[in-house]
């Protein structure tokens, strides 16, 4: 989840009257003492078997359930303890775990030196990852609603998170913000390294006077910011714009802009509520020196010789690629792809990008670097020719799915969303790049899997036939058998074959051959094995998309309907995977099952669809995935009183209602309203 997003939320303003809150230090002191006493008793009773961390323990939190405790460590893990014994280990953070906040009796938040915040289930699943901070995060606190929260850290900021997005960034005139909490009246308190406790409020009655607010802003503007902080990147002073650049409005809350004023560099932050740029300090060490004269670049609390900015998708968030000249470029590329949940298909491009751009290059001196993801050899599974990114929606190429029907022009909106009975498929592809990647990986494939040139040509003809590029061609049985054998390539290189299978299975001839009753069990079992929750995210996504595309023809639909219970149960094992594209494909699979069940009096099948959709709504955060799940619910309950009653008993109305006020995309709120009316 990207920080600093333009979310509507009330703004927190500085408070200067301490009497409005009483003794902040003493507030809640009794319960805190009891918690510490309880913790001490638990720790003294630990047995040798309970010693689980291999590094210093930085964070401890007692959970609501009696006897449960969380610990976070420099070994990058979180451990759940019960009665003095380690019950479970959580992995995901890439640096020290610094703090916790309890969301409810089943969920908690963690923060880390890796600049991320994670939401977890106590059962071990990571529900969401939030990004916004640019340095160590030390502390968290949750609002009484159990969903929104605040965080603070080494980047001098206190951040307000609402509906999963960072809606406000409060900069403080201090090096670090060490701690924060939320008072009973909803005000936010932050303690910083300058020895000052500051209180921020949404209530106009408690806001500081205009003079005090101006004094705080003046104090903030006099602060100094190192040019080597991760939030500012590398600075070359002669290339910075002047103050006229401040006439242009910012694009998001907390956006930072650097301005050259003579020989000085100033940092400004955009405030959506004020509609203006606010100075947050002067940048020091911004002489534009080279790598040799300016030292290393600080990123996420560590020093690097280079920190490249990589734009994966046009208009999407940029990613940082840190690198030291002593590092192995291939290992660095591998770690970068894994950290950002990108496909291993980019390994060559990223590694070569590092090699080419670290040959004596001075930081910030080049503006023409070729991004490894947007060069001529770019290939992303399911990217359309013409450049639509993989994250774009497969139906429209622009991150949105709409029904083929048009909106009604009457005063009463027509339901264009459900029931959705025709299959939703993933059709877009860049066939040239798929084949290029297959040929590339084939050269390094094990001997018993390597394809001959003739075999590659047969797959090329098959791909042309199933994508309509060759209208005269019909897929041959030999070509289909060859494709099926290629899907048994090793897990780390099989994704181009799965991408071809995803496209081919829509064709009636391929669908008939692979989903025929003689081979369908083998076909389905192989795909489900490739969908292993511990496997590659690219494979998981492509298998789910292949299953969705099976519904495009009669034989595939019959196969999946006959194995519905098994397929949906295995697919649900991926609900804890923190990947947007996996969640969208998973939601689409549920939607296609719902569409196939619509005309059938199969209460058991509809009950499974309702149950799965309800469970996924508790997990997925992506709005497109949520929208498809809502359409699946609507399709399942339409014209079926029994299904409606079952949906109500599952509590889906409350799950639906929380999206009714979402303004973007508008289709989400409209679908919610129609679904609530249906129920």
TrEMBL record:
<keyword id="KW-0853">WD repeat</keyword>
<dbReference type="GO" id="GO:0005737">
    <property type="term" value="C:cytoplasm"/>
</dbReference>
<dbReference type="GO" id="GO:0043130">
    <property type="term" value="F:ubiquitin binding"/>
</dbReference>
<comment type="similarity">
    <text>Belongs to the WD repeat PLAP family.</text>
</comment>
<dbReference type="GO" id="GO:0005634">
    <property type="term" value="C:nucleus"/>
</dbReference>
<keyword id="KW-0677">Repeat</keyword>
<dbReference type="InterPro" id="IPR015155">
    <property type="entry name" value="PFU"/>
</dbReference>
<dbReference type="InterPro" id="IPR038122">
    <property type="entry name" value="PFU_sf"/>
</dbReference>
<feature type="repeat" description="WD">
    <location>
        <begin position="50"/>
        <end position="82"/>
    </location>
</feature>
<feature type="repeat" description="WD">
    <location>
        <begin position="130"/>
        <end position="162"/>
    </location>
</feature>
<dbReference type="InterPro" id="IPR001680">
    <property type="entry name" value="WD40_rpt"/>
</dbReference>
<feature type="domain" description="PUL">
    <location>
        <begin position="416"/>
        <end position="678"/>
    </location>
</feature>
<dbReference type="GO" id="GO:0043161">
    <property type="term" value="P:proteasome-mediated ubiquitin-dependent protein catabolic process"/>
</dbReference>
<keyword id="KW-0963">Cytoplasm</keyword>
<dbReference type="InterPro" id="IPR011989">
    <property type="entry name" value="ARM-like"/>
</dbReference>
<feature type="domain" description="PFU">
    <location>
        <begin position="269"/>
        <end position="368"/>
    </location>
</feature>
<dbReference type="InterPro" id="IPR036322">
    <property type="entry name" value="WD40_repeat_dom_sf"/>
</dbReference>
<dbReference type="InterPro" id="IPR015943">
    <property type="entry name" value="WD40/YVTN_repeat-like_dom_sf"/>
</dbReference>
<dbReference type="InterPro" id="IPR013535">
    <property type="entry name" value="PUL_dom"/>
</dbReference>
<dbReference type="Pfam" id="PF00400">
    <property type="entry name" value="WD40"/>
</dbReference>
<dbReference type="Pfam" id="PF09070">
    <property type="entry name" value="PFU"/>
</dbReference>
<dbReference type="Pfam" id="PF08324">
    <property type="entry name" value="PUL"/>
</dbReference>
<protein>
    <submittedName>
        <fullName>PLAP protein</fullName>
    </submittedName>
</protein>
<dbReference type="GO" id="GO:0010992">
    <property type="term" value="P:ubiquitin recycling"/>
</dbReference>
């Amino acid at each position: 989840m990207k920080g600093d997003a333009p979310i509507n939320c009330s703004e927190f303003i500085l408070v200067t009257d301490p009497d409005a809150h009483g003794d902040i230090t003493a507030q809640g002191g009794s319960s805190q003492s009891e918690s510490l006493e309880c913790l001490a008793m638990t720790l003294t009773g630990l047995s040798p078997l309970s010693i689980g961390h291999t590094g210093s323990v930085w964070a401890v939190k007692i959970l609501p359930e009696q006897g449960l405790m969380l610990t976070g460590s420099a070994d990058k893990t979180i451990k759940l303890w019960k009665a003095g014994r380690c019950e479970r280990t959580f992995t995901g953070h890439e640096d020290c775990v610094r703090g916790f906040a309890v969301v409810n009796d089943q969920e908690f938040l963690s923060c880390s030196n890796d600049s991320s915040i994670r939401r977890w289930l106590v059962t071990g699943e990571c529900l969401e990852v939030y990004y916004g901070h640019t340095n160590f995060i030390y502390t968290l606190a949750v609002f009484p609603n159990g969903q929104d929260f605040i965080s603070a850290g080494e980047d001098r900021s206190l951040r307000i998170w609402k509906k999963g997005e960072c809606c406000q960034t409060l900069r403080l005139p201090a090096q670090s913000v060490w701690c924060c909490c939320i008072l009973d009246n909803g005000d936010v308190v932050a303690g910083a390294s300058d020895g000052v406790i500051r209180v921020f409020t949404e209530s106009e009655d408690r806001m500081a006077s205009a003079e005090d607010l101006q004094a705080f802003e003046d104090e903030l503007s006099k602060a100094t910011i190192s040019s080597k902080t991760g939030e500012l990147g590398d600075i070359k002073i002669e290339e910075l714009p002047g103050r006229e650049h401040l006439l242009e409005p910012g694009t998001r809350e907390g956006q930072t802009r650097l301005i050259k004023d003579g020989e000085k560099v100033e940092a400004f932050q955009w405030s959506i509520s004020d509609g203006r740029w606010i100075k947050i300090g002067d940048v020091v060490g911004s002489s534009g020196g080279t790598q040799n004269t300016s030292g290393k670049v600080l990123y996420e609390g560590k020093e690097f010789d280079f920190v490249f900015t990589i734009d994966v998708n046009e208009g999407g968030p940029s990613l940082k690629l840190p690198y030291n000249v002593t590092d192995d470029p291939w290992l660095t590329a591998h770690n970068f792809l894994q950290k950002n949940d990108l496909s291993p298909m980019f390994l060559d491009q990223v590694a070569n990008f590092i090699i080419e751009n670290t040959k004596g290059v001075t930081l910030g001196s080049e503006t023409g670097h070729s991004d490894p993801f947007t060069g001529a050899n770019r290939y992303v599974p399911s990217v359309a020719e013409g450049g639509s990114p993989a994250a774009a929606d497969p139906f429209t190429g622009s991150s949105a799915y709409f029904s083929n029907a048009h909106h009604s022009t009457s005063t009463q909106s027509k339901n264009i969303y459900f029931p959705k009975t025709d299959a939703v498929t993933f059709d877009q592809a860049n066939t040239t790049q798929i084949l290029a990647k297959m040929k590339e990986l084939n050269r390094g494939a094990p001997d018993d899997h390597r394809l001959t040139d003739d075999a590659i040509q047969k797959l090329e003809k098959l791909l042309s036939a199933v994508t309509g590029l060759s209208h005269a061609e019909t897929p041959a049985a030999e070509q289909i058998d060859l494709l099926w054998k290629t899907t048994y390539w090793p897990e780390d290189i099989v994704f181009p074959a799965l991408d071809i299978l995803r496209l081919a299975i829509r064709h009636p001839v391929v669908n008939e051959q692979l989903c025929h009753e003689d081979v369908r069990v083998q076909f389905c079992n192989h795909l489900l094995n490739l969908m292993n929750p511990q496997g590659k995210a690219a494979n998981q996504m492509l298998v789910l998309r292949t299953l969705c595309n099976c519904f495009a023809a009669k034989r595939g639909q019959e196969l999946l309907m006959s194995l519905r219970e098994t397929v949906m149960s295995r697919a649900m094992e991926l609900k804890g995977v923190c990947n947007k594209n996996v969640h969208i494909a998973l939601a689409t699979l549920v939607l296609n099952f719902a569409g196939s069940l619509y005309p059938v009096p199969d209460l058991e099948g509809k009950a499974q669809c309702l149950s799965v959709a309800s469970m996924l709504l508790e997990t997925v955060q992506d709005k497109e995935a949520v929208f498809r799940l809502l359409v699946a619910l609507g399709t399942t309950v339409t014209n079926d009183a029994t299904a409606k009653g079952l949906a109500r008993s599952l509590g889906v109305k409350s799950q639906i209602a929380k999206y009714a006020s979402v303004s973007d995309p508008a289709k989400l709120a409209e679908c919610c309203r129609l679904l609530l009316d249906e129920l």
